[in-house]
Amino acid sequence: MITEPASQTDVRMDGSAGLRGEREATPGSAGRRRERLMVPKADFDSYYGRPVLNEPPWQAHDIAGYLFLGGLAGASSTLAAAAELTGRPRLARVSKVGAMCALGGSLYALIHDLGRPSRFLNMLRVFKVTSPMSVGTWILSAYGPQAGAAAATDVSGLFPGLGRAATVGAGVSGTAVATYTAALICDTAVPAWHEGFREMPFLFAGSSAAAAGGLGMLAAPLSEAAPARRAALLGAAVECAAAARMERRLGALAEPLKRNKLLRFGEVLALAGAVAGITAGRRSRIAAMAAGAALLAGSACTRFGIFQAGMESANDPRYTVQPQRRRLAKERAERDLT
Amino acid sequence: MAFDLEEQLDQSRRVGFFTDTSICIGCKACEVACKEWNHVPDDGLDFTGWSYDNTVGLSADTWRHVAFVEQRKPLGHQESGVGDMDFRWLMASDVCKHCTHAACLDVCPTGSLFRTEFGTVVVQEDICNGCGYCVPACPFGVIGKREESGLAAKCTMCYDRLGAGEEPACAKTCPTDSIQFGDLDELRERAERRLDQVHAAGTTSARLYGHDPNDGVGGTGAMFLLLDEPEVYGLPPDPVVTTRDLPSMWRHVGVAALALLAGVAATAWYGGRK
Asked: CB count, 10 Å around CB of B165?
């Protein structure tokens, strides 16, 4: 509860004094009594309820969209490499082409989000390990050409040796593309993102694998899609387990995550798609395509949900002040004990 | 307050602000002087109804913000003169903290944000590409992204004035010397002395903010004497530079990436063709 932040002056917004309606109030007459809270709400101070943090100037369709597309691209490249090395050329091809399209969307979203898109190459002035965005730029610079070469050589049939090398290279660097985005959002003061940094990389890895598996099931023939089905199941399970662990560990700070409908919907879609894929999706092409679409939609919902929950935690001073207060109280208690 | 030019500009010295809110009169001259000197564009005229504060908070276009808090509490031994009611009116001029461990600077992917020879943190407008990463990185909600230019902007501690041997515009104009500029070590000692003085005068709620080099941001280049908890003024009670946890974040990312590689490989090599 925000403790009486409003000004206690008797002068009203329009400048007039007097006319105080509460003088006419009849105590106890305003409707039925609501259910009483058994645990009193934690009290904290704030400056007129205003957020402590400034809201990230990021558009959901750009940044959450990038979290989804980057994950899809990276994990699809990994799946493509595994498929190619185990003799599943058609799964490899759809995964490579899918990765390249998702990469194109990622780059568009990243550049579109800049205040000065024409200066996007300024990212390549420096390499800073303290900046996940800088590290990510270099990861994408290493991954992008390989993913592009893998798709282009596969589709055109030219330079098969180079294509094989690019496929493996993109497959390995794709895992970094799919997971570094967790550090990207966790390395901020946004409470729900920052405090979730232990589980976020696993949540994103799982969500990426589920999306890549979904794409494989959607576009590859049944006879080759077995790795996609298994990757989707494994990914969805890891994603849900990581989310559950994060929500348990964060305590009160998990509220914005727990009440986020997109996040819940994403989990349901991912699990339903993964289970449908491994059962009906093994026999029916239609079922496989439906399950694949559900997995892709689920991964997108999860990323947008994580994005929304973070924004919500940044915009409410409670989630900034209360965990810091608790930390200070704990430190003080430990100091007093010793 | 004497400000010895030659001493402050010594390369090894770090300069900063000490904002003593106990003598702030809420005149907002600092806000005006900052806007004038730095050509900070207007950011709207809104009536908030929050006491005398219509500035709201720090942002790309507000580099000094005077907070006003009205409380039914006594101020030291003072008689409020409002009948039997206790009353105190807290005013505080907030500004970029120029942290020792500055998250905005750490996360900037272009190197636009840099540490100056005065120990301050400044945005280079010609390098910034408006990625906006510095905005959620700041634990104090200081830096922002300008709509018109698309670039990040915040207090520079009047970098141009420091270079010319002048103190920042806000400190120069402050009529009560609530905003004091100087050598950081000296300001820290002055802040301690002032705290003792204010405590002795009966305002036991006074405390320093940002003066401790062992806090989560390594101490700030702009410290404050506050009369209530930091969050009452909109300041975080225990700010931590987000990059403190970054080594651990990278380790978790590394393990997750390897797990993704191993997991996808396992789905292809184990479990058969069906």
From this structure: 11
